[in-house]
Amino acid sequence: xxxxxxxxxxxxxxxxxxxxxxxxxxxxxxxxxxxxxxxxxxxxxxxxxxxxxxxxxxxxxxxxxxxxxxxxxxxxxxxxxxxxxxxxxxxxxxxxxxxxxxxxxxxxxxxxxxxxxxxxxxxxxxxxxxxxxxxxxxxxxxxxxxxxxxxxxxxxxxxxxxxxxxxxxxxxxxxxxxxxxxxxxxxxxxxxxxxxxxxxxxxxxxxxxxxxxxxxxxxxxxxxxxxxxxxxxxxxxxxxxxxxxxxxxxxxxxxxxxxxxxxxxxxxxxxxxxxxxxxxxxxxxxxxxxxxxxxxxxxxxxxxxxxxxxxxxxxxxxxxxxxxxxxxxxxxxxxxxxxxxxxxxxxxxxxxxxxxxxxxxxxxxxxxxxxxxxxxxxxxxxxxxxxxxxxxxxx
Length: 395
Prior knowledge:
Blueprint: H1 5-14, E1 22-25, H2 28-42, E2 47-51, E3 64-67, H3 70-80, E4 84-85, E5 95-96, E6 100-104, E7 115-124, E8 129-135, H4 142-148, E9 154-158, H5 166-175, H6 180-199, E10 202-212, E11 218-220, E12 224-227, H7 236-239, H8 249-256, E13 260-263, E14 268-272, H9 275-287, E15 294-297, H10 304-315, E16 322-329, H11 334-348, E17 355-361, H12 364-372, E18 378-381, H13 384-394
Parallel strand pairs: 14-16, 16-17, 17-18
Antiparallel strand pairs: 1-6, 2-3, 2-6, 4-5, 7-8, 7-10, 8-9, 10-11, 10-12, 13-15
Helix pairs in contact: 2-3, 5-6, 9-13, 10-11, 11-12
């Protein structure tokens, strides 16, 4: 689950991580109120207005702007709220901005040089260990740094159950070129950040940039936090932060029906029971000349209701030119699935694209007989090759 920057910073602050202070606003009037409150609390004279969407690269799309007066706060926030923000991560369709974060200015003049760093925490699936990835070159796209200056990317692997050890925090500060009191503040920052990552069962923390201010404070200026969906039951207060408006409507509907669904850009919808079989089915679609329009795993309990819900979600995609249902009858009987397909077909009505049903396993022949005898525009297949040939013929 993704959350907004203002929510992520709230979590970090709860665990003692120093952040760029800010307040969220849903209107220009609220933004002005937030700016006034921040001025009173922090003394800031300027404000940064940040669009709150689940995508990076906001600055490039005009979603991060500096306001030097209350009038500018009102104007910028008013223009930003309701706009469709297009960034490299949103695609051409962009995302509508419903909220903005009004944040204090932390790039003020002072006695020392400011500096920006990159820092993230994530799970290295190859080693099964959490890893801290960091760089002295922050505030820019880390992918560019990794490609052009890989020697500027450092990694610190954390042993399970040990947490970040003192020498590791000191090594991070050293590799970032920090000494003295600033190094100590960076060590404390990293330790608190890692503790927060563990405490909320996160799958990713990304702070870009971590800022050393001109008066030698260490702050999280931005914060991207992803959470492990499987652990949300332990964090109902965080699950309540979920913003459904930022998610794909089809994926939201699928989750409500206990379906594992990921939307893709192809023309052949697929419904399968089991993740491995789903991947194989997508390969078959590609080999037949089609392109998968989605990943949809109905699990081991496929029935009329789940089949109907899955078909409805798939057919809502205007790019879908055919649907391939590929079921292996282990726990679930193929004839039950076939009856579910027929029932769903009749309930949904007016299905204009061909539906191919490949059943294998328990009662596969009985299921095929149900499909063939339905009189509906549903094509049955027994082998993957038959299914692939039908996809190629019909699409």
